[in-house]
Amino acid sequence: MTNNDFLLSVEGLTVSFDGFKAVDDLSFYVDPEEIHVIIGPNGAGKTTALDLICGKTRATAGSIRFRSRELTEMKEHQIVHAGVGRKFQNPSIYEDLTVFENLEISYPKGRSVFGALAFKRDAKVRERVAEIAEMIFLADHLSERAEYLSHGQKQWLEIGMLLIQDPELLMLDEPVAGMSVSERVKTAELLHRIIQGRSVIVIEHDMKFVEDIAHKVTVLHQGRVLSEGTMAHVKSDPRVVEVYLGH
Ligand code: ADP
């Protein structure tokens, strides 16, 4: 596979905060339709790596190629437009709006249209909202105010608000934190559904969940790649065992 076949190629990525390298010469690659999980102890640089990809933090060195585009010089909103969606750990949904309204306002606006065209577009938006609601297990909750949803349902709603913008790469920060066991199982199912035509990068601490979802795992330690491959491979890598159990 040449580098151009990857959906995302991160190469030599580095960022320093006051001389401290939080991410240090980091390289990893994400295939199309891949669930790529980043694990590593606290302070390993996982969040900073995602911040660099979505443009929240500027790299000191290195490149981030998404399809054929270089992201390192782009602004956050341009990166979103290029097809990269990011969900942070705490859901940022509108609590006083319904599930339907939360999804509807997240639908890309496009240019203003009137009359028959507007009617047609509204029908299309409703259809897309229904499709996404089905996917995120909220089809029966469309008219419910978001504040009454469970913690897990709120997380799914936020994922739905990203999905309705049709990103090709979705980045999720600890999506199952605080979820019940059954919600975790459904979230794994959701991730397998949403990689049809897109890839997902997940930061996760829950190793059982990682085993359920990961096609590929990158283990970070002190801003660098310590190990990568399948979960079975990284789990048996002595360097990974040392970092997780050796202290
Ligand atoms: P992780 O997500 O793996 O727990 P982070 O990416 O949050 O790790 O942090 C990596 C390291 O970089 C930590 O030592 C953290 O304190 C440091 N760091 C992260 N962001 C900043 C910042 N804006 N300024 C200074 N140091 C930072």
TrEMBL record:
Protein's name according to its UniProt entry: Urea ABC transporter ATP-binding protein UrtD
NCBIfam families given in the database record: urea_trans_UrtD (TIGR03411)
Superkingdom of the organism of origin: Bacteria
CDD domains: ABC_Mj1267_LivG_branched
Gene that this polypeptide is encoded by: urtD
Source species: Jiella sonneratiae
All copies of domain ABC transporter, residue ranges: 8-247
GO terms for MF: ATP binding
Keyword list, A-Z: ATP-binding, Nucleotide-binding, Transport
Pfam family, one: ABC_tran
